[in-house]
Write a structure and sequence with these properties.
This protein has helices at residues 2-33, 41-50, 55-89, 101-114, 124-143, 150-174, 178-189, 197-215, 218-224, 228-233, 238-260, 266-274, 282-306, 315-333. By secondary structure, the protein is mostly helical.
């Protein structure tokens, strides 16, 4: 009987995994097919393989494919970062955009643009974004080490976010370069429009390395859920865990924000979608959240393209519209 139940559980896990992969493949296909211009999809693929540069081929391979890849990277990375922060801080309200990490990364990118440093080399923008995201992570972790109240943790994060937002607005108001102002507004709204393979290759490795740091914390986060003293007594190195969370989150948020700007609430919503199906286990939440988050971003980006609006809604605006009510609901459910 026990063997039968174990096999049934294994089959159930495989079914869920195959279902998620199938959905990712389906919506990736739809992301490549759907757009403002109708293209002959299969003809574009064949022309691309044969090396012919037609309009349809350019639209498919130069515009839609990198955009789809960026959706997957941004979704998976931010979902993982949100799950890791919630597990480490033991706070279901924690998320990079809420606790000020995303806005700090955007501040770094905006400062780089405002000072004109990005004109020297594009690589300075992600360096600035990564550095500011890391500082925000460090401040958040240090200030919340001895904090018990869940609401206090969020208030500290909101304070960091408010400071970063104020400094970003200051830079915006002092800038007299219209091109710089347009770029700054872009970082504040968040978008995957007009991304190229260069952007994918820029953000992808940072998200990948950051994900390795965070996934290494999966087992330790399980033990940390029992309390810091219990985790330490079982061999968990809290200092090393903190550094892994710090570097992993900073790399992911810095990498994605430097390319797409602020895309918020992805890391808040998706871990809560996953937890009921993994018995609220932090390790499994960390593993299953990235594909669900990637799927959410893909669906959101497709919705942006088919909504009957005169101009394209920014991805960060749509995720905020979807995530803010959920955030308010979670606050209403919390009890100190």
């Amino acid at each position: 009987m026990h063997k039968f139940l174990r096999q049934k559980k294994l089959l159930s896990k495989k079914f869920v995994a195959y279902s998620i992969v199938s959905l990712l493949a389906l919506f990736s296909f739809l992301s490549l097919r759907i757009g403002y211009v109708n293209i002959d999809f299969f003809s574009a693929i064949m022309n691309g393989i044969s090396g012919q540069k037609t309009t349809d081929t350019i639209i498919l391979f130069e515009l839609r494919l990198p955009r789809t890849l960026m959706c997957l990277i941004v979704g998976a990375g931010l979902g993982l970062a949100g799950a890791a922060l919630q597990g480490y801080l033991r706070n279901p309200l924690a998320e990079p955009s809420i606790v000020g990490i995303s806005s700090s990364a955007a501040l770094g990118a905006v400062l780089c643009i405002g000072l004109g440093i990005n004109t020297i080399s594009f690589f300075y923008t992600p360096i600035f974004a990564l550095s500011f995201a890391m500082v925000a992570c460090l401040i958040l972790i240090k200030l919340t080490q001895n904090t018990v109240s869940r609401h206090s943790v969020i208030l500290i994060g909101v304070g960091i976010s408010a400071l970063s937002g104020s400094l970003t607005t200051l830079i915006l108001s002092l800038s007299d370069n219209p091109f710089a102002i347009n770029e700054i507004v872009f970082w504040m709204l968040g978008s995957v429009t007009d991304v190229s393979y260069f952007h994918v290759l820029l953000a992808g490795p940072m998200v990948l390395v950051g994900s390795v740091f965070l996934l290494r914390c999966a087992s330790d986060l399980n033990l940390l859920s029992l309390g810091e003293e219990t985790a330490s007594s079982t061999g968990v190195n809290i200092g090393r865990l903190r550094l892994n969370i710090l570097f992993g989150t900073a790399l992911i948020v810095g990498g994605t924000t430097s390319v797409t700007g602020i895309v918020g609430f992805v890391g808040l919503v998706t871990p809560h979608m996953v937890r009921p199906f993994v018995n609220y286990e932090p390790k499994k939440t960390l593993i299953w959240t990235p594909p669900i988050a990637a799927l959410l971003i893909l669906v959101s980006d497709i919705a942006i393209r088919i909504l009957p609006t005169t101009g394209e809604i920014k991805l960060g605006v749509l995720t905020a519209l979807l995530g803010t009510p959920f955030f308010l609901y979670l606050i209403g459910q919390q009890r100190d």
